[in-house]
């Protein structure tokens, strides 16, 4: 099977049955949990702060449950209504929005203390329609510029994602830089084809926190 | 679910809609109250990000008049408690948010606002 983002747009791929299947799959749950904890580690929030976070592509709330447990208040955006329905049924605490991040975010400047995103960015690399505003570079640009503005200075945003080529990584990092972000790519287990995980760690201002990634 | 904490941070994001695009006006809303754990530090941290007047108005639109019209200089525990309730315990379940400037309607159904734009509204 090829990766889901190559088969259909997310709101189609994650239809009703796929959304429930994805969420109930214990292997998916475990992977998603591991990725979320690692993203939070890279986010490096000050321990004494009760922060307001944005979960980009929150899906059925698998990461959101962890944010709840960790004491964060959060809002989540996702383009797949079926996934959001499942999140509601699971009674996660975060505010949920049906939103296409490629259209840009509408949050006021400095709204969030940080953002995480698990397994979402690769979806932005596929054109949604033939319209020119739907081309991946346009969608990435709108997303990163509106995200940069929605984050506080200093703060961080951490994205785990599945690039299929170095060109894709290059497009994503250069677009993020143009939007004003610092930071870069962190690769975990670079030598294992199976365990290899790619994280885009973006900084607004100094990026907050003490330690550099 | 959408609460006033996110409503207060949300502006219209339709192409070219950059003035008078905040706050979005509630229309025909239904609400549900859900208790949340009180964390005074969280509310205090959030305070500088909020637009007080918009929050007071939005609270009124959903039937809560507990906040003073002007932001108090001292945020004592009583004010923080009231803010906590207004920001985190009132959930909008149905209705819509309407942009005062471009009149775009963001419908809220089953607690989830639909923020999707059509092709000509994308910046
Ligand atoms: Zn508008």
TrEMBL record, chain B:
Gene Ontology biological-process annotations: rRNA (guanine-N7)-methylation; tRNA methylation
Classification via InterPro entries: Trm112, Trm112-like
Gene3D superfamilies: 2.20.25.10
A molecular function GO annotation: protein heterodimerization activity
Superkingdom assignment: Eukaryota
Matches recorded under SUPFAM superfamilies: Trm112p-like
Similarity comment: Belongs to the TRM112 family.
Subunit field text: Interacts with TRM9.
Name of this protein: Trm112p-domain-containing protein
Organism: Serpula lacrymans var. lacrymans (strain S7.3) (Dry rot fungus)
